[in-house]
Amino acid sequence: MVHYVARAADIKLAPAYSGHSNRYKRCSVIDRAVGAVHTGLGLCELDAGGHIDRHVQSFEEQFYITEGAPTLVLEDRGYPLMPGACGVIPVGTPHAWIGPEAGIARWIDLMTPIPREGQGPSDIFFLGAPKGVPVEPLDIRDPRTRHFFRMSEDDITLDKLKAGARVDAPTVSASMATALLAYSGIAVKMLVDQRLSAALGTMFMVEYQPGGVAHLHDHPLEEAYVFLEGEVEATADGEEYLLKTGDVLWTGVGCIHSFANRSNGTVRWLETQSPQPPARHSYRFNRDWDYLENKIREG
To answer: Residue 193: left if φ>0, alpha if ψ -120 to 50, beta else—which one?
Structure first.
């Protein structure tokens, strides 16, 4: 079996980075313990007044903010974030996290390749508590914020994208790189990929309309799915699941899986892929090869 399901009720966060953080918790949901090779996926919390010390690491880190307003210190500049903000921390880049002024900040992270966690040489190197740095609002139109993006509700609503955007609209410049992909009742909005300098994984938002379906297929890569809204019927390695808000699914290389939204509402999840998909043949649909088999059998 090359898949794993974590139910929302079973995901428990605990203090992390002991001695190098304050009021920070994380749960490593997908890692080596469930059979993953490339995917280190976690859920994170940082309380007001908390922080994670400055550090560098030998793996790529991607993130998506789900709640609250933490500040990410990347190199020598602080970026206040908000729900929908996402980005990549490239390998070897000094960074730190600072808690919100009030409340709790929550986010999803992808670490790829999986941190060693004591298996082999060190791969996280702490540099001390975060020091005062310039803090400016995140402006994704600014070319200097090349590692960040922010998804708004309009970004995944097809009808809202049919009209042209004003030149001063508070969004990234319209281009094919930020387009919405829509097919078979499914909308896909890319969040983190090569355009943000990610090299080892991708992160994107998926939304299924009622009746939306992805038929049985597999990939030459690992995928993780964090369900944010609604419920969807899924199969993985021949097993059936009803996945709901807060659940997490991971599929390994060769896991044949499918999704179908048979509810009356939309379903939304955050999805990651690691390593990044190849230029061709990243999807292998059973029905295509079944069709070929039948053609050959017919002579």
So the answer is: beta
